[in-house]
Amino acid sequence: MRLRNPVEFRNGEARLSLTSRLAAANGFKSMHNFVTITGTSIRSIHFGEPDAIAMLSGWSGFDPEVLSAHRLKTVQQGATWKLGEAMMSRDMLPGYRHRYCPKCVACDLTERENDSHLGAYVRVTWTTRAIRHCPQHGCSIVEERCEPHELGDFARFVSAHRDRIMAQSAAAKPARAFELDRYIEGRIRGHTANAYLDGLETFVAFDLCKYLGNFHRANFDSGRPPGPRPGETEEGFVIASSGPARIEAVVAEAIDRVKPQASEAKSVFGKLRVWLLRNYQRTEYSSVVELFQDIAERHMPLGPEDVFVLPTRKRHLHSLRSASIEYNLMEERVYQLLLRAGLVQKSDLPSSRIYFDAEKGNRVLAEAAETLNTSDIARHLGIDIDVARTILDAGLIPRVENVGRSRVYSRVRLEDYNAFYAKLDIRILDTGQSTELVDTPAACMRARCRNPEIFELAVQGQIKLYRSRDSDGALLGLKVDPAELREAIVEKRRRIAAARRRDDNSSLFAGDNLIDGEDITRRLKASGCTGHELLKLGFLEQVDAVCPTTWRKKKYTTRKSLATFMKHHVSLSGLANECGTPPRLLRHKLYDLGIRPIFEQSEVGSRTAEFYRRADIRKYL
């Protein structure tokens, strides 16, 4: 039966709003009292149950189909509910509150002169807390708590608080942005507006905007100049409405600013990750969870043991620290290898915050991991670790890295080590074989060479190496023919001296035009270390050069300097031969005449020949 005082049903009006206005127009004390008398319930009307719709149609005179618009439906045991065409979450229920736009209500009140409160109606979009601003005016939705029996009786509320609502309307200011509210209003009405967000349930889209906005504020607000700006959720809507590519760009930039280690994901993602963890098992969130899981895997150094929201499926990035652990290499070495490979740039960041491409890095680090260090080489060859270092320093086994300004890591590839050992061609020494062989330390002393040179000549096939059958190590107890080694060393150094004029320190190699101390003594037919003393005291021109046979630097003189000295000086023995006088008598005679040698033996502290200036003795002899 149609009521005596009907009211106009407004487009987009909530059913309880119409019921409240009908109750007020027909003199009922409250909507609750009116509904109780009719035998139905407020909940039945609110959810649009068929019997309640039929009864409301009879009271108001409006078609049931019109009143059934925006029917509510509970889904998944109350976890979600449907408003029109939009799915809402439980926390979007209004609860015991009147929700309204004061400007909309003020406009409704001014449209009627008498019983103006009957003209104010509740828009169906106000019945979800997903709408935070009026889609028409942009001002914030006002929420006023009410008692359970007052819920939905908006006409009575407006009648009792008209002045307050008008004051709220005058003070209300539009938000800087409320596009998300308009978007959700469209979703309630069944409109499509965004290719990406339309593919999500409405409550998922709303929460995505909310937590994405919080993420953006947390990571990009520092240093931003103060001033009016949209709310967090609106900022998130701007990003999310641009699609997955834009979302990834924002998240990737935030990660790049901080470079967090895998265990610090929460420091960057904050509430966004908490939200994902809370909902990752719900099917409505699956596409969003997959999106952020994929972004995190491709922009953070997450490995199989790390969990962002889901377990990591593939490692895309490594940090220096994670690579050091996986490949069992020191962090500094990993850094230097990648730096030379161009996979990282020089950085002062901690090792856990320096990222690189895991696939490209594997090509470099896997090869480096299949190596032997100095201790391994010494153990395999049965030699002292210092000897192993000299082998590496001599370049007989190439290191994995080149020598740079940083520490030289003594690691070699296993295949290079095997090639080196095969070229040594060590022979087993049978019992009774030549006793002229000596161990390598003694051979080095005789040939005036170093251990690495023995191995170098052996690798080149110029000498033979021997070891006994019962030797424990590959190079332990090695023996070599000292004469063969000496000959090979002399030949090697002559060959190098002939190939280049100077050694590695730019010292001149001694050639035929230079004479050392021993040769000077021999040419002067003198004794002891006369030649060395003449060089030391400066009577001969000194030339620093490298001996091409011993590879050692020492003092030389030129042939010209020696010839000049011999022209102007004579030894005591030579002068005695010329005069036919014994050297001792001749020395006393010269002493009595006041003629002294160019240096006294006591000055040099060794037995040397005595030399006199020819100019001094010419006038006496």
UniProtKB/TrEMBL annotation:
- Taxonomic lineage of the native organism: Bacteria, Pseudomonadati, Pseudomonadota, Alphaproteobacteria, Hyphomicrobiales
Q: Which Pfam families match?
A: TniQ
Alphabetical list of InterPro entries matching this protein: TniQ
The species this protein was found in: Shinella sumterensis
Span of domain TniQ = 9-140
The protein here is known as TniQ family protein
